[in-house]
Records
---
Amino acid sequence: MDQAEPQRVVVMTGATAGLGAHTAQHIAGQPGTRVIIGARGSKTVPLGAGVLPLDLASLDSVRDFADAVTREIGDARIDILVLNAGMQTSNAERRSADGYELTFAVNHLAHYLLARLLLSRMADGGRLVITTSDTHDPAITPIAPKVLEPQSLANPIKTGFGSGVRAYAASKLCNLLTAQSFATLDEVKAHKITVIAFNPGLTGGTSLGRESSRGRRAFVMLLMRTVFRLVGLFRPEYVMGTPERSGQVLADVCLGAVTPPPGRIYVSLVKGEPTFPDPSELARSRDAQDQLWRESAVMVGVGQRPAADDAGP
Ligand SMILES: NC(=O)c1ccc[n+]([C@@H]2O[C@H](COP(=O)([O-])OP(=O)(O)OC[C@H]3O[C@@H](n4cnc5c(N)ncnc54)[C@H](OP(=O)(O)O)[C@@H]3O)[C@@H](O)[C@H]2O)c1
């Protein structure tokens, strides 16, 4: 990787496709910026960015990636940590290398572990940005979870029709709960790290639904172009955006051009513009945040107390 005197270090997941590819391009184009992308397989990345292997479906791979980043940056610090990778399946049958439901494992558990492992390497005044979705919120999406049951998310019993989208919505709730837990850590406050949960909103033209059958993808596209367009006349959250715009705003969030008002951490892109609404009631529950933190720590095998120093395996 390029070792030429960068001033700003950015570590990012989900930079190889969809909206994140646009984000990475914007960030890598900033002067004096070094971008390290975690990705599976060999990928084309923007000029100025380097890739280290990362498969979020394996906690060992997450640990190896965190070690590799630490070696790679040496004495430098991470200025911006962007946890944007995500996936959705048509049902909740698939399992990660560690035996957890795949969507929960990739979208939540892996990012939770990665953030815990890299927190102590972050720069003072740094930014931790986690991509969530407004599908976490029952007020916007009826399938969103109304209760938090981490064990059921990790090992679901119901894996039939609709379980894939429900697992996805729940994993995005977990992203928001996790962001809020990080924001309350003494270490985060002491180092003035800004934590943001970013909702790109409904974004067409990405590969998020790639694991669905062709028929299902065509059905979803039809829904987006018809029903969602109609609903969008009354509910702006249903207006579909582009990967270019969503990626640009995520870059703005990462680079500090967009920041929520004091005391808020949720940035939600609605009709192409950042807004700062309340997340769902469940996402704001301190009990739910603590429960998810505790149970996730056990699942990934890190210490119970919310401090980065005890994050080693
Ligand atoms: N599109 C929407 O409407 C929408 C709405 C709200 C929130 N979001 C969120 O926005 C983020 C980006 O979504 P997108 O729509 O841009 O999806 P996308 O086009 O499918 O991109 C997903 C990214 O995640 C990476 N990824 C997936 N599984 C991985 C794994 N096991 N290990 C490492 N990397 C993995 C992909 O890498 P590969 O290139 O290797 O596949 C890709 O870079 C996600 O967190 C998603 O939940 C999207």
Note: The chain is about 40% helix and 15% strand.
---
Amino acid sequence: MTQKELGYVELEWTCPACNTRNPGTARKCTQCGASQPAEVKFEQAPEEKIITDEAKIAEAKAGPDIYCAYCGTRNPSTATTCKQCSAPLAEGKAREAGGVLGGLKTEPAAPIKCPSCGAENPAMAHTCAKCGAPLVKAAPPPPPPAAKRGCVGLPVLLILIAIIAFIVMGSRSKAVVGQVSDVYWRRAIAIEAFMPVTRENWRADIPADAEVGNCRKEVRRTQNEPAPGAREVCGTPYVKDEGSGYGKVIQDCQYQIFEDKCQYKALAWVAVPALVREGHDLAPAWPDKALGQDQRQAGRTEGYKVVFATDGRTYEYTPRSEDEFRSFQPGSRWQLTVNGFGAVTGVTPD
Ligand SMILES: [Zn+2]
Ligand SMILES: [Zn+2]
Ligand SMILES: [Zn+2]
């Protein structure tokens, strides 16, 4: 992330003694004269404008203000002795700085109602234009009552019941006698052919001998540092406390790097329809068709199935091997273990 600096804005602070809103640069309360205590935080003004005045920009860049170790007065960072008690400021403590205050407030803010005479004043005014009373900060609205904790127990309970039901159903097995009514086998050989295909890749990654077709620009990656031709993508500007009564306006940016993505033709091994052989007897065999030119085998699969008939219904069973499959002579009788879902979990000759 690149942090772009857009400039500085003036902050505010609220006097804890008289509740007056003061400009960030006022080190003493404009109403009661009290020095801003170190623990009173700077806040954003209702409307913020990036300052253009060179002298103010220099002040903003000067660094956090310093509190006198003897009398606690707030002094500019450039001062060497306290303007209140003349003590050297070398032992003083700098204001905390660097905290993020919030998004830059560029929208016009709502007017403020004077608490003394009720007149409406612009959001940025600190004293009433009509009666001169300080436009103290409105008390923050009371926090909404904490939402009642939702009942999380019920869904968990339902899932638990479902799991238990599943286990119980699966383990509730019964024994039945069945007669083999059908046998089925299927064997397949996967085939791949070496043939021309259309693919897509970044231009730099396309094999040199490939025939390149249509290309288009796409974002290949996003990086933190700017680069020629990159697209800049930035977040909302926000304000950081500089400790001097000013805030630094910052925008976090990233850079999208574009590259050509192209279609190209190349030769590759591609899956083509498999060779399949199947039957309803006990003599499974592999397909024996010869491979074509530029073809190769890409794996074999085999599957077996036996159907048992009992009075009124049928059960399917999947033998694990050809040897096991061959033992199910059509018409032979078997003891079947059937679980609660109707699946055959065991077979023994009757
Ligand atoms: Zn005050
Ligand atoms: Zn002092
Ligand atoms: Zn007023």
Note: DSSP finds three helices and 18 strands in the chain.
